[in-house]
Amino acid sequence: MHREVTLPPISDSGYMKLATAYVDHYLQRDGLRNCFMNIEPHRVKNICQLVGALRLTPRQIQEVFRILGHVFETSEENKGRLKWCLAVGSIAMAAFKVGNPKVYHLLGTQQFEPKEAFGFLNDVLGDSNIDWWFTLFLTGGGLKVNEGQTAQDVMTQVGLIENGEEPARLKHMGQWHEGWGHSSANRLGEIHKKIEQILQWK
Asked: pTM here?
């Protein structure tokens, strides 16, 4: 006879402990694995925020890190050299692959309508860093943007900025594009393709 037991939800500190343990196990193992991503505390915080918002189970979190371990594995000379947007974008895509496959597919195929993406982030994150994550989706090429539309047009469309306004975040768009590397046109699509290839190895 099997009895179902409802486990209490994981606390924020619990997610941090799990993420830190998995970072050590899957992403940086001295003598065994070199990580392309620079393991910094605020990057681990990015991971914790997302897996916490998606309410992933410990088993799902382990699967996210297993995927990331393969995505980020690199040579000694490239250790820690991955562009920051590619790092966080990969974290997000691995988390969505496990915790929300629909969003993962929409971002990976550039089919995520901006208003739908903004609504999703609002539902998942509340008021916490919505504009930051939305900008990541937008600059990484995950959103469905009409030909000729600018970043300002899209942000105005979803209500992040008022019509005619040019907020500070638009002045820093170059930093986002630089964070994705030489071309940010479809970086989330490239990450999607890589994750799919990794999962075929199983």
From this structure: 0.80
